[in-house]
Design a protein that fits this description.
Elements lengths: L3 E5 L4 H12 L3 E6 L2 H15 L3 E5 L5 H12 L7 E4 L14 H29 L2 E6 L9 H21 L4 E6 L8 H4 L15 H13 L4 E2 L3 H12 L2 H7 L5
Parallel strand pairs: 1-2, 1-4, 2-3, 4-5, 5-6, 6-7
Bound molecules: NADP nicotinamide-adenine-dinucleotide phosphate.
Length: 252
Amino acid sequence: MSSRALVTGATAGIGTSFVHALAARGADLVLVARDTARLESVAAELRERHGVEADVLPADLTVEADVARVAEAVASQDRPVDLLVNNAGASLAGWFGTTEIADEDRQLDLLVRAPMHLMDAALKAMGERGRGAVVNVTSVAAFTPRGAYSAHKAWLTNLSQWADWQYASQGVRVMALAPGFTRTEFHQRGEMDVSGVPGWMWLDADRLVAEALRDLERGKSLSIPSKRYKVLATLARHAPTALVARAAKRGR
Ligand SMILES: NC(=O)c1ccc[n+]([C@@H]2O[C@H](COP(=O)([O-])OP(=O)(O)OC[C@H]3O[C@@H](n4cnc5c(N)ncnc54)[C@H](OP(=O)(O)O)[C@@H]3O)[C@@H](O)[C@H]2O)c1
């Protein structure tokens, strides 16, 4: 397992599960998100509970200069990052075509541009050292037509799978992690009505991350945690678009 990991969106949900799981395996952490007080509090908990180093790097990943600062940390050869987890994400309260285009630009920055820049920095730095890994948190939405969000996640899933194949020979691994509905702050923050989503569709973030880390160790380029979502993702890839789009409309 890696000795130093940088995780974006480390202050809530899946990101917090990642930093705890990695710290429990002895990895030092660099935590990225916007809320400095929350970053400090998660970092203190990691130091206390797991005895690891935890640095905080406050950044808004929709701001170009902030992304550049985080990319610099990822590229550092003095304090190497062995695992990058591109996890930070959010959703807009409304379907593409009804939202403000400036908000859509910020979504594109957060879900596509920021992970692209950080992955670029990681591939170059890790390539030079001949080892390292990147986990890009996408979504099972990547396999369904479901507005701009799923299009962004499809882009990152596709790039991740190619990058894993392309850079494996240099010792660098890339894995797309495609979660289904997971209990976090995500839906509340995005003002989504998830009351129609049945209980069986909800995943636990800690279990999701444990399965994802197992998949990374097994060398998978795509991790879809839980049997139910493996089945749903397979169906979504092969069923007619109109049918999948209608089924995937839940949760908004
Ligand atoms: N929950 C689900 O059902 C689900 C399903 C599929 C995929 N996903 C994906 O999983 C990832 C994590 O989501 P989650 O469910 O854990 O969400 P969450 O509980 O809302 O946490 C989101 C994290 O991202 C950070 N963040 C948001 N905007 C940011 C920005 N502009 N710059 C830097 N950090 C930012 C937040 O911290 P600050 O607010 O302090 O910045 C927070 O730490 C996302 O990429 C999401 O698309 C989630």
